[in-house]
């Protein structure tokens, strides 16, 4: 065991806030984590961690040591990545967490091209609509919609798609076509929820702003399910036109109040740890994601392999 092994264990314990969480991430027993932390504290002659039965947190000395270790490890990672980039191409397993909608509609049509570009990368794509912690669950990166409140991760914005009101012509023929957002209160509404809390649609249009508090007849965490309900005539939903482009073109869905749209739009971001930025396969996949989402929002066809640039040795910003 090297000093670096002790430091890595210490960093994971501080970041996860528990021996069990660190052990799960490192793939070793919690007893081994505890033993290595004790060896590190004995070697330094100082207590690095405060411990209770419920949590672990750094002492004043431990916080100072953590900040210096993070900086040192980041420098080592950058040095390793710079050397590997001179002679290597992206390879190895890449574990990605993504919601069903963007995975199926945006990424799936591009996967053959990604494999052609980077044949040595084994992509492990997990589809889940829950906002899981990517590091805690063993992912290299996660793709999410909406604002991200966890500042402990790096993020790369992949695009912002305008959100509009959609319904089937059959539903609108039956229930009527609203002429102002306030009339939506008299309609059956279909909501997509990814996090707990009140549901609302903050709208902006030519007459200013209007926030609709929702009392939906149907709520799901999957936009594809909501869209199927809208197509069946169940009510009005909020979605991006690029997501529903083919359904609108086929006449299955119709844009309502086209001059009104969601105030914030649909923000899509990729989340990843500071350490993941040094991994070449993570960086090329981030470039691939950004290119795929930009084309999808613009309504362009999937890119040919030569059109997706290879990432250089720089970390993403």
Automatic annotation (TrEMBL):
Q: Which domain of life is it from?
A: Bacteria
Question: What keyword terms does UniProt attach to this protein?
Answer: DNA-binding, Transcription, Transcription regulation
Show where the HTH lysR-type domain sits.
1-59
Q: Give the GO biological process terms.
A: DNA-templated transcription
CDD domains the record matches:
PBP2_CrgA_like
MF-aspect GO terms: DNA-binding transcription factor activity; sequence-specific DNA binding
Matching Pfam families: HTH_1 (PF00126), LysR_substrate (PF03466)
User: Does this entry carry the keyword Transcription?
Assistant: yes
Presence of the UniProt keyword Transcription regulation in the record: yes
Annotated family: Belongs to the LysR transcriptional regulatory family.
Under which name does UniProt file this protein? LysR family transcriptional regulator
Q: Which organism is it from?
A: Xanthobacter dioxanivorans
């Amino acid at each position: 065991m090297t000093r670096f092994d002790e430091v890595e264990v210490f960093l994971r314990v501080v970041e996860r806030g528990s021996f069990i969480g660190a052990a799960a991430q490192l793939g070793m027993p919690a007893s081994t984590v505890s033993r290595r932390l004790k060896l590190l504290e004995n070697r330094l002659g100082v207590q690095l961690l405060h411990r209770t039965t419920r949590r672990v947190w750094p002492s004043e000395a431990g916080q100072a040591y953590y900040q210096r270790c993070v900086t040192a490890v980041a420098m080592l990672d950058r040095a390793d990545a710079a050397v590997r980039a001179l002679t290597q191409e992206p390879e190895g397993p890449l574990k990605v967490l993504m919601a069903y909608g963007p995975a199926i509609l945006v990424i799936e049509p591009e996967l053959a091209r990604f494999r052609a570009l980077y044949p040595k990368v084994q992509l492990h794509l997990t589809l889940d609509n829950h906002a899981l912690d990517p590091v805690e669950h063993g992912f290299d990166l996660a793709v999410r919609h909406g604002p991200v409140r966890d500042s402990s991760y790096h993020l790369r914005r992949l695009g912002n798609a305008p959100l509009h009101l959609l319904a089937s012509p059959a539903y609108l023929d039956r229930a009527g076509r609203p002429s102002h957002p306030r009339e939506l209160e008299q309609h059956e509404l279909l909501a997509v929820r990814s996090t707990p809390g009140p549901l609302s649609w903050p709208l902006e249009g030519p007459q200013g702003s209007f926030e609709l508090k929702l009392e939906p007849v149907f709520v799901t965490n999957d936009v594809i399910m909501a869209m199927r309900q809208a197509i069946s005539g169940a009510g009005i939903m909020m979605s991006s036109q690029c997501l529903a482009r083919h359904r609108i073109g086929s006449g299955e869905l119709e844009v309502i109040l086209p001059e009104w749209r969601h105030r914030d739009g649909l923000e899509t971001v990729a989340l990843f740890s500071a350490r993941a930025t040094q991994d070449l396969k993570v960086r090329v996949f981030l470039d691939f994601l950004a290119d795929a989402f930009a084309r999808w929002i613009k309504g362009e066809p999937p890119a040919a392999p030569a059109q997706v640039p290879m990432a250089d040795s720089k970390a993403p910003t």
